[in-house]
Design brief:
Elements: E1 2-6, H1 11-22, E2 26-30, H2 39-48, E3 53-55, H3 62-71, E4 76-79, H4 86-91, H5 93-113, E5 118-124, H6 147-165, E6 170-176, E7 178-180, H7 199-207, E8 214-217, E9 229-230, E10 232-234, H8 235-249, E11 256-261, E12 267-268, H9 269-280, E13 286-289, H10 304-310, H11 318-331
Helix pairs in contact: 1-2, 1-8, 3-5, 5-6, 7-9, 7-11, 9-11
This protein binds UDP-4-deoxy-4-formamido-beta-L-arabinopyranose.
């Protein structure tokens, strides 16, 4: 298929692009590079062994987006592009609503005008809100506790309403749990700008000497060891889940499908830290800090619907995730090159 991948230079997007090309699809990446470095493209091309068609522009530009669909025959869209930092969304809500909703509306308009009906959306377990019972199931109601989460809830609603207006649409809402890990080659991985918000890249930067020690946000949660429990999923499993969803949509008879992409296993902060110490071969310093506002004690998926309907299952273990992350981080201590 000819697949437009928005945000294809990002963490999950780049790993999905490599797998799409390996499976024989023709990939067209659109990325504004506001949150990704251009040097990712060379890493993708080194892994695929072929040039990557990349268009660098902002998908909130409706005319540019529509022109692309007019010039290129596109069979399907995988929509990763979006701002995704919870804390930043609280400080810059209007930027988050304008960007995350704007890209989605721009894509839907161009798709409608050019008869493209297949789209896989990068949603998030954050749409289950603060009080969801674990393991989380797709039927749960959605809500949010921050503007980033609301943009995901609202984008899901936009896709649902668009599908009512045009039942020919085939849209997959993929709710990721906690994406971590890196390509096993060590040449691609997560490279957050500034101080990492998320746990795994922060631990990796402690291990490589960029950060002094890990601050653990809360040691008094009602969990196995008092620290927060999450469903960490390897980015390679996540990429495979997108491709499985893309194939499933070509046979789907429902306009909207919702799938959790998680392992179904919960892992605590301390358990992840111990796994990373095994991967890097040394103890890592940490201190217990007060809880982070907005955090919940436990979040992990019920992935049975994705397992059954997509013929997909996460296979990489927590140790795989840490070993692959450590290979990436130790080979790229400062992430991707700037140039
Ligand atoms: C994981 C655990 C923290 C950092 C967020 C978004 C979610 C998705 C994934 C985009 C928690 C603890 C973390 C640190 C810590 N993003 N922690 N010290 O909050 O589960 O999910 O990222 O889709 O939408 O909400 O991920 O990695 O920030 O935290 O102790 O320096 O690690 O308290 O228990 P989270 P996280």
């Amino acid at each position: 298929m000819r697949v437009l991948v928005s945000g294809g230079a990002g963490f999950v997007g780049s790993h999905t692009v490599v797998q799409l090309v390996a499976e024989g699809h023709h990939v067209l990446v659109v990325d504004s590079f506001v949150n990704a470095k251009p040097s990712v493209v060379a890493r993708i091309e080194a892994l695929t062994g072929q040039p990557l068609d990349v268009r660098a522009f902002d998908l909130t530009d409706r005319d540019r987006t529509e022109r692309l669909f007019a010039e290129e025959s596109i069979d399907a869209v995988i929509h990763f592009a979006g701002f995704k930092a919870v804390g930043e969304s609280v400080e810059r809500p209007v930027d988050y609503y304008e960007n995350n909703l704007g890209t989605t509306l721009s894509l839907l308009r161009a798709m409608e005008k050019h008869g493209v009906t297949t789209l896989v959306f990068s949603s998030s377990a954050t749409v289950y809100g603060a009080d969801a019972p674990v393991p989380m199931r797709e039927e749960l109601p959605t809500s949010a506790t921050n503007p980033y989460g609301w943009t995901k809830v609202m984008q899901e609603q936009i896709f649902r309403d668009a599908a009512v207006a045009d039942p020919a649409l085939r849209i997959a809402l993929l709710r990721y749990f906690n994406p971590v890990g890196a390509h096993p080659s060590g040449t691609m991985g997560e490279d957050p700008a500034g101080i990492p918000n998320n746990l795994m890249p922060f631990i990796a930067q402690v291990a490589v000497g960029r950060r002094e020690k890990l601050g653990i946000f809360g040691g008094d949660y009602p969990t196995v060891d008092g620290t927060g429990v999450r469903d960490y999923i390897h980015v390679e499993d996540l990429a495979a889940g997108h491709i499985a969803a893309l194939h499933r949509l070509t046979q789907a008879d429902e306009p909207i499908s919702v799938w959790n992409l998680g392992t179904g296993q919960g892992t605590s902060v301390l358990q992840l830290l111990r796994a990373f110490e095994r991967a890097c071969g040394r103890e890592l310093p940490y201190e217990i800090l007060p809880r982070r506002a907005g955090d919940i004690a436990e979040s992990y998926a019920d992935p049975t619907r994705a397992n059954a309907e997509l013929g997909w299952r996460a296979t990489r273990t927590i140790d795989d995730m840490c070993v692959d992350t450590w290979r990436w981080q130790s080979q790229n201590p400062h992430g991707y090159p700037d140039a």
